[in-house]
From TrEMBL:
Family matches, as InterPro entries: RNaseH-like_sf, YqgF, YqgF/RNaseH-like_dom, YqgF/RNaseH-like_dom_sf
EC number(s) given by UniProt: 3.1.-.-
GO CC annotation: cytosol
Cell compartment(s), UniProt: Cytoplasm
Keywords: Cytoplasm, Hydrolase, Nuclease, Ribosome biogenesis
Pfam families, A to Z: RuvX
Primary site of residence: cytoplasm
Domain YqgF/RNase H-like: 2-104
Family assignment from sequence similarity: Belongs to the YqgF HJR family.
Biological processes annotated in GO: rRNA 5'-end processing
PANTHER family per UniProt: POLYNUCLEOTIDYL TRANSFERASE, RIBONUCLEASE H-LIKE SUPERFAMILY PROTEIN (PTHR33317)
Name of protein: Putative pre-16S rRNA nuclease
Organism: Gracilibacillus ureilyticus
Top-tier EC class: hydrolase
Length: 138
């Protein structure tokens, strides 16, 4: 069964989540470290994830400004999405991720997680929330 990969693309890290086989739930997988905009620095790891999880679609968080416009981070996500489509010949969906990082932070704070531990999982958690939002919508 094909799965969907969710990515929270930041300037230094990329949070990764994957759907279950039925496309109902998202689970955090890992956090990739990269040097934006050097797409080649994550090509191999992305290929491994696509192969390992038999991915046929990737959902990338699109950070919009609160008024709905797209700023520099949103443009960076659009460029990353174009790289994914060209490099891996895979469908990419850009998903409005406004508030996901803040929501992830709130969940982790409520779980009383230390700042150091939060920093390690925040990107992966944001990727889960992006992917889960997408899965809930279809």
């Amino acid at each position: 069964m094909n799965k969907v990969l969710g990515l929270d693309v930041g300037s230094k890290t990329i949070g990764v989540a994957v759907s279950d086989g039925l496309g109902w739930t998202a689970q955090g997988v890992t956090t990739l470290h990269w040097v934006e905009p050097d797409y080649e620095s994550v090509r191999e790891e992305l290929q491994q994830l696509i192969d390992e999880y038999d991915v046929n679609k990737i959902v990338i968080g699109l950070p919009k400004n609160m008024n709905g416009t797209i700023g520099p981070r949103g443009e960076a996500s659009q460029q990353f999405a174009a790289f994914i489509e060209e490099s891996f010949q895979i469908e990419v969906v850009l998903w409005d991720e406004r508030l996901t990082t803040m929501a992830a932070e709130k969940v982790l704070l409520e779980a009383d997680m230390s700042r150091k531990k939060r920093k390690k999982v925040i990107d992966k958690m944001a990727a889960v929330m992006i992917l889960q939002g997408y899965l809930d919508s279809i």
